[in-house]
Every structure is written in structure tokens, then in C-alpha cells.
Amino acid sequence: MTECGVCFRHCRLEDGQIGFCGGRVAKNGRTEAFNYGRITSLALDPIEKKPLRRFYPGSRILSVGSFGCNLRCPFCQNYEISWSEEAKRFAQTADTVSPEELAALAASCTRKGNIGIAFTYNEPLIGYEFVRDTAKLARASGLKNVLVTNGTAELSVLEELRPYIDAMNIDLKGFTDRYYQKVLGGSRKQVLSFIEEAVKTCHIELTTLIVPGENDSEEEMRELSQWVSRLNNPDGESVPLHVSRFFPQFHMTDRLPTEVRTVRHLASVAGESLEYVYTGNC
Question: What CA–CA distances, in Å, run from 67 to 70, 227, 238, 251?
């Protein structure tokens, strides 16, 4: 039996067994990235789409995703690759992309305004080995590396990536343990610890998706933003918060979209404590 050390779940796996996330497998007494180099998504995106508003604004970044996730958000917009068995079957039969190939592709896109690689779409931390190996090569070529993540990982994973990551957008999905545990299947404590450490060495921006009836109270936003206000990026600038609008999808099609006025009001509440607050999907 092998115990995975990537996130709070610490899945105990028999040899050859795949963990809860769908992206890690037990092999010869250790776990490794089952999704290593198996690419499901690739696009040259505006940096603002990550979303990052205060990191090389106006630039573009090569965004890459694999499959698997260690949360189970019922509103996931990328569920086809985060939860989908079809995506895993496709990826298992597809040719893998090596770190060298991906870094070279990113470098070839600089003439199109590309500044680097964003590991995104699914949860990149569950396949941190591929992120680390690729980001190291990209950094050596003068490219920037970005993580778009739920922040649900042990600090040992962050230590593996810390030397090579320039910026992250981390989901701070809410500010109650109930929401993280009962709705998302996650650990708020682990996410907060990850954010507190990540902000010490790279540019961080946070995103909170406002889901009606779940995390949309003034009280929760006030507590969340006051906690964020105690953080500063390495350059001394305060950490930006993106307050984003929910749309019904996946297992939450019975909900109405968040009202635009609600998102804007909660952004104004966050603005009582934070210097940089942005609204999304409005």
C-alpha cells in the first residue's frame, strides 16, 4: 500500500491503483503523475483570462491542461477534463508531450505576444512533476510560468515548484469549512496555508466565485477580504481579489446565475479592506 502525499486526502493505493483525483497512480511503492505529459487542452490566451490583472497586462500566455482534479466542485466549468472518464480515455491513447516539446512550443509563440506557460484548465498541482520539469526549461529560456490552481496541495508540492513559478491565480472559493467540506469536497485550511506560503515568493491573485445561497453573504466576504488584506506580494503590493459571477452548469443547473448587482456589491464589500478588487463574468 502506497500513500500519496500531494493533498489532504493522502490516498492509500495498491500498486497500479489511481487516486481520487484521477491524475496520480501508485507504482513501485510511490505515487507518480499518471497524467504526465497527457495534454487535453492548449490555447494562447490573454493573461487577463487566467485571471491575472496585475501581471504583465496586455500579454498572452500559452495555456495548457491535462486531466484530473482533487476537488469535486458541482459547478465545475471544465468538468469534461476534471472529472470526465472520456477525457482520461482519450489522454491515455494520445501521444504524450514532453517538457522539452512544450517549452519549445511556448518559445516559438513569443512572436505572437506569448510570455510563457500557464498550467490551467484542470488542477495542475496533482501532476506537479510535469509542471516542475516544464517550468524549469521555460524559465531557462526566459519565459514566465503561471499556475491556475485550487491551492489544495501540501507545502512539499509548493517547494518543488517554488523556484520556477512567477505567478499564480489561486481559487479561494469561500471562507467557511462547511462550504469547502460539504459542497466542494476540499480543505479550506490547506488552501489558506498554501496561499500564505505561495505569496512569499511569487505574484498571487485570488478568485472567489459567488454561488447563490452558498458563499454570497456580506459577512463571509468581509471575513474573507480581511484575511486577504493581511497578505502582500513579494514586491510589497497587496494581493488582488477577483469576485466572479456564477452561471448554472454541471451539477448545479437548478440554480439561477448570480445577480450582477450581488457580485458588484460583494466586490464593494471586499474593497473596504482591499486595494485591488475586480469583478468577473459580469
Answer: 11, 31, 32, 19
Rounded distance, CA 151 to CA 167, Å? 13
Half-sphere exposure of 175 (CA within 13 A, CB side): 18
Find all residues with CB under 8 Å of 178, minimum gap 6, and list them: none
Residue type, 164: Y
Rounded CA-CA distance 263/266 in Å is: 5
One-letter amino acid at 201 equals T
User: What are the pLDDT digits (tens) for 204-242?
Assistant: 999 999 999 999 999 999 999 999 999 999 999 999 999
- Three-state DSSP at 82 gives helix
Residue 178 identity (one-letter amino acid): R
Whole-model pTM above 0.90? yes
How far lies 186's CA from each of 14, 89, 209, 210, in Å?
23, 26, 15, 17
* β-pair type (60-65, 41-46): antiparallel
270 in Cβ contact with 205 (< 8 Å): no
Which residue reads 512550443 in cell numbers? 105
CATH numbers and ranges of domains, the chain: 2-280 (3.20.20.70)
